[in-house]
Amino acid sequence: MSEEIRITDLARPLRTEMQRSALAYAETLEIELTSQSILHEASQATGLDDFGSLDFVARLELLCDEWGSDTNLVNLGRLSLRNKLLQHAKSRLLIQDVLSRHPEIHAVEVQAPIIVAGLPRSGTTHLLNLMAADSRLRALPLWESYEPIPLPGEAPLENGVDPRYQRCEDTWQMMQALSPLLAVMHPMSPDHIHEELELMGPNFSSYNYEWLSVSPRWRDHYYACDQTPHYDYMKTVLKILTWQDGDASGKKTRWVLKCPQHLEQLDVLQKVFPDATIAITHRDPVSVIQSAATMLAYGQRINRKQVDLEGLMSYWTDRVIHLLRACVRDHGSLSAERSIDVLFHEFMADDVGMVGKIYAKADLEMTALARSELQTFVDEHKRGKDGRVIYNLRDDFGVEPEQLRALFDFYVTRFPVKVEVL
Fold this sequence. Notes:
Number of helices: 20
Helix content: 40-55%
Order of helices and strands: EHHHHEHHHHHHHEHEHHEHHHEHHH
CATH architecture of the domain at 1-18 and 111-137 and 254-422: 3-Layer(aba) Sandwich
CATH topology of the domain at 1-18 and 111-137 and 254-422: Rossmann fold
């Protein structure tokens, strides 16, 4: 039986010695969170200076200004955010460079991908990683999502490991040491299959920035803008990865992808991937909010001066409402032949069987080998094997589940999600 973990210090964290040391060290640093410094450092690190279209700079500056003016952000959090933006700037230079040298990449096809959409914490990660175990499908491991293009002249390490993989592994080891329970709630090992919205990062776009820090101004900008150009950018990076694999046409590659953001971008998703099969997961939204808010609150002990439980609950309740209202609004635009609703309780009861139903929609045969690969993954990745966090909405956030659930009548009357006892 896996260990049950109860976090009792969300509001007033009892930080570990390592956490205190990391926080203290970061306070000795001067962190320049500006677009100019980030772009300059990215150019120095890559030896490149062509960022392509400069429309992204306004988005980068918005993020720098919002995060830089956040007085509740500690230096360790500010450093982490700057490193993320720097990583995206370096990737943008590398992406632009490879496209300039190999314009034929634009002709690569991304054919009939299988795309999972659904609320965070609703089974999307397990479903994606499960299908990624099928050797016929191409998925995006975390290390490659962070650095899709290798640095110029960078060779494998002496042990044959890609340096990008090693950098991701080093970050994972640090995460486990610095935030052990966060690692339990949301594993981020290099081989973990990640969301393709990470590939929008070099275009400084997507709702991902909302997960990294308190970002209401970014959210409002995201709401106000057509996301089609950013989905097109992400698709172009998928073409680069396909080409790097040696598939110059794209006809030998079938991608499996996922991102919760797609729930509120279904029309854009279908415009950019018109032949996609779309699987939408559905779970009791109260369970989703409880899990997400707890995870984010735990993370705030190393990036913010004060943990804002009320603010997290308010923000992410509103955010989940927005995602689900958009899903309800646009669900009818999905092709019945190429889409499927995946109820969380049914998926948890028979995950391999549910994948078989998705494959039927995608015209992909469930072969004996595929079934074996999927079952092996299930057997080797039992839920909670590294511990299971016990959530408590009432005690931790002062919120009654039924009162919160009443906000989602519009959703639960549309989709037969199973109400979870909290």
